[in-house]
Amino acid sequence: MTLRLGDTAPDFEQESSIGKIKFHDWAGDSWVVLFSHPADFTPVCTTELGLTAKLKPEFDKRNVKAIALSVDGAEAHTQWIKDIEETQQTVVGFPIVADVDKKVAGLYDMIHPNQSETATVRSLFVIDPKKKVRLIITYPMSTGRNFDEVLRVLDALQLTDGYTVATPGNWKDGDDVIIPLSVKDEEVIKQKYPKGYKSPRPYLRITPQPNK
């Protein structure tokens, strides 16, 4: 199965480090960051889960729940969490799905045979409260993820959902934004963008970020 942006994130019911999870019910009305790992007790993944645990205050501010996945079992997850907490000096406050039968990996296209026939690659999905897939990033198994980028995209998605704007390259919260080409009426522009805009080209209209 190939999952694309705008698709409904597949629901699933699976064991996890905190017991059985029915994904859509667990997600509720939150944004979700769902990310997979090749296996438990692996070094890069240990650092990534530690980083995710430390980002809980940032995720909470954005109404985001984190959930990890590995094809190992729940008992292994429980033991691995102890290692993560000891080596990364944090508390893992999010579940790790035990995808032993690879059901979820199949639904989310997390196994890439040319990388590994059995292990999930480092896929990450941002899913909005309507259960729509809004971001897909897939890293090679040897490369740790950039969680600053995940937070940046969450900020951009939440801003552009709330206001009729787009974000330029390397945008960070507080930077100027772009007026989409779909907005043409000058009266509408005055109403929507009261701070005004500069336009180095007719198609490039830059305005201060709206107040959130």
From TrEMBL:
Ranges of residues in domain Thioredoxin: 3-159
An annotated Gene Ontology molecular function: thioredoxin-dependent peroxiredoxin activity
InterPro entries: AhpC/TSA, Peroxiredoxin, Peroxiredoxin_AhpC-typ, Peroxiredoxin_C, PRX_1cys, Thioredoxin-like_sf, Thioredoxin_domain
Highest taxon of the lineage: Bacteria
PANTHER family per UniProt: THIOREDOXIN PEROXIDASE, THIOREDOXIN-DEPENDENT PEROXIDE REDUCTASE, MITOCHONDRIAL
Family: Belongs to the peroxiredoxin family. AhpC/Prx1 subfamily.
Protein name according to UniProt: Thioredoxin peroxidase
Protein species of origin: Herbaspirillum chlorophenolicum
